[in-house]
Amino acid sequence: MLTRAINVPELPSTELLIGGHWVEAATRNRFTTLNPATEESIADISQAGGADIDAAVASARDALKRGPWSALTGAQRGRILNRLAAIMRERFDELALLESVDCGKPLAATRRMDLPAAIDCLEYFAGWADKISGEVVPTRHDALTYVHRVPVGVVAVIVPWNFPLMNAVWKIAPALACGCTVVLKPAELTPLSALWLGQAALDAGLPAGVLNIVPGFGSDAGAALVGHPGIDKISFTGSPQTGRFIMRTAAEHITRIGLELGGKSPSVVFADADLDAAVRQTASGAFFNAGQVCSAATRIIVEDSVHDAFVEKLVERASGLRLGDPLDAGTTMGPLISGKQMAQVLRYIDAGRDAGATIDFGGHRGGKTGYFVEPTIFTGVTGDMRIAREEIFGPVLSVLRFRDEDEALSLANGTDYSLAAAIWTRDINRAHQMSDLLNAGTVWINTYGPTDARLPWGGMGGQSGIGRDLGRGALDNYTEQKAVWLQMSDNRAAAIRSA
Questions:
Q1: Which listed residue (294, 303, 374, 391) is catalytic?
Q2: Third-level CATH fold of 266-445
Q3: I need a surface site. Which of 251, 314, 438, 469 has the fewest CB within 10 A?
């Protein structure tokens, strides 16, 4: 059912992966995924509904309790994850092309960031699989008391469309390393790499039912999944609106949740900064993936004395970006994911204009085919404007002025988001002091945007969510601590009594 006119690799299936088998949805319904650069159909995908979610959860539960997964050692689980990473390396070009076409992301960016990050994450957590240990806690002489970690159970993983493969692996890798089983619902706009990953996992030796893939819509498959009594943990990345729905729904069964939500990340540029580096990295942080990044550098807060010079360099940088076919080597910015997203971004541009901000560059749709929006730079922005406070999720950045550190900090912390922030300065004392005071789960100093599987990732509450992906702390998401008390004879006490 693939539209072969679109140059994408053959998928293993366009059906659901449940219990180790590719199956048609119970309703036989299908939906179409489009190439956002051309608006053409790529594939018709089986659409999961409530009955399919029931089957996927039951399959994951059976694999957890009665299947071979529960009998494997950590070392064996780690070897499977490493084999999956090796398959991704061997078929790197194929997977990069598939992700690029489905997301509209430039192929060069997918090859440079998305796939290497996903592979590295798999290998990192594969290394943890046999090192998830407990501890002996001495409490009394007549008892052996210890704590060990057990898998949290069946995990619902729901990921967005901006980094579909990378975000899926960020959650699946630690969950599987810890011995959990997974039901993955990819975004309906970008399901292809998840289907590819499902088959690759089977090829790597993952037992049937350990990873189930159920593409579908949030209102149907997603709602059924987060409200399912058989789910032990929900791990979600997406919008604050959906995050609030998940929290309310999960409360019914008191299901554990982890939410990585939105961002409105500030990049604070002091007068003593390396302006060329700040412009280069900040522009990349704002316009990478057409601004469809939760940690995008959407608020640039610049000291008065260098404001004009910074903006001039920023406009020059933006003017060098080339919108176009994601598969063209010369393309540096692709389209937005959908017509709906494009319309929303254009409405925000209108709102900024109406509020009195000045467009120094961009501000329009790019071309007539595909969901392109020009990189857009606003100046004259104040902290109370919508474009400075709300997550746009497009290539739109706002430049704000500040006079001193106190004003810079007030502007930087002046939203409900807390995901990431950056500081540009040569003053190391200022950098450390500001990093302590910024309300952000990640603070970059004299750079913007790098992440690593070894470091935790997440917000500090508010509309950026709760919990952390990545790093050693991610193991806490997918394990429970079990205390064991073994009563023994107290020969020491008896000897004291008889003395």
A1: 294
A2: Aldehyde Dehydrogenase; Chain A, domain 2 (3.40.309)
A3: 251
Question: DSSP code of 14?
Answer: S
From 235, 229, 224, 220, select the one nearest 251 (Cα to Cα): 229
The position carrying tokens 């789910």 is 231
Q: What is the per-residue pLDDT across 155-167, written as a single tens digit (0 to 9) for each?
A: 999 999 999 999 9
Tokens of 178: 């810890």
Can you read off the two tokens belonging to residue 465? 């969510």
**Residue ranges matching CATH 3.40.605.10 in the chain:** 16-261+459-483
- Active site annotation includes 294: yes
Q: Is the pLDDT of residue 455 over 80?
A: yes
Residue 324 has pLDDT above 80, yes or no: yes
Q: Is 121 a catalytic residue?
A: no
Q: State the Cα–Cα distance between residues 394 and 407, nearest whole angstrom.
A: 26
pTM of the model: 0.95
**Strand bridging mode 211-213 / 233-237:** unpaired
Structure token digits, residue 496: 């004291």
Q: Is 169 left (phi over 0), alpha (psi -120 to 50) or beta?
A: alpha
> Residues 88, 178: contact at Cβ < 8 Å?
no
Q: Which of 99, 123, 188, 260 is labelled catalytic?
A: 260
